[in-house]
Amino acid sequence: MTPPRRPDPPPMRTNDVRVALAGTVAWAIALVVLLVAGTPSGDRWWLWVCVTGIVTGLFGIWYIPRLQAGRERQEAARAARREAAVEDATLPADGEPGGPRGPGATRQDAVAEASETSKTSKTSETSEADV
Q: Whole-angstrom Cα distance, residue 2 to residue 111?
């Protein structure tokens, strides 16, 4: 038998903007080196690779904070929905204090009770018909 699986660790928090900034600086340094040293035998596409890297890095520096803020808003909305569902599930059935099934009864208890009642009635109808 395999041992029970341990829960996954929480995701590691990183500073993604700093990573994008480091890459952008690296591309800028490469562009400066190519401009100072010159491109090999007229291969000017090397310069455009560096420019593309810089532009992509600048876009990342602009976009990453917006992406993370959107993800945080989405997670907060999910947490609020989960919390509302838990509160809704613990409300007394039929809107009465304590409900007809007593204090602490939940809507899930009412559904379970209703399904048990329907199973019992179906069983009794079947047994009477068999006789």
A: 36
| Cβ atoms of residues 14 and 41 within 8 Å | no
DSSP string, 76-121: HHHHHHHHHHHHHHTSPGGGSTT-TT-TT--HHHHHHHHHHHHHHH
Question: Considering the entire predicted model, what is its pTM?
Answer: 0.57
Count of helix runs (H) and strand runs (E) in the chain: 3, 0
d(C-alpha 7, C-alpha 14), whole Å:
21
* pLDDT tens-place string over residues 64-119: 999 999 999 999 999 999 988 888 877 665 555 554 555 555 556 655 665 555 55
C-alpha span between 76 and 48 (Å, rounded): 42
Whether pLDDT at 131 is above 50: no
Query: What CA–CA distance (Å, rounded) separates 131 from 127?
Result: 7
